[in-house]
Amino acid sequence: MSRSRRVLHRFARRPNGREARNEQRKALAAVFNALAIALIVTGLIGPAINPSLEPTLDVARRVGLVLSGVAAHLVVRAILWSVEDK
Asked: Which secondary-structure segment (H or E) carries 43?
């Protein structure tokens, strides 16, 4: 196996223990949750924080950001539902 393949395999393989898999799932959920929060905050109060965004973020784009944030939160719920019980 080549060196680059071994490096990629290290990150793509499934961990052996249940607790390790759960920690990876929780870390992935935290990343998606942070993305969701950023999208929702930008959509709701972005132009109030940074007035230069006003011409760029019209109502349709702001609604799109909020809906994207809601979708990211649904992904977080799906990830956390896959956490294995003890």
From this structure: helix 18-49
Range of the domain at 34: 17-81
Each residue's pLDDT tens digit, 38-70:
999 999 999 899 999 888 999 999 999 999 999
Does residue 1 lie in a domain region? no
Segments of the chain assigned E as strands: none
Q: CA of 4: how far to CAs of 7, 9, 12, 13, in Å? A: 5, 9, 12, 14
Based on the structure, what is the number of domains in the chain?
1
Q: What whole-number percentage of the chain has pLDDT above 90? A: 59
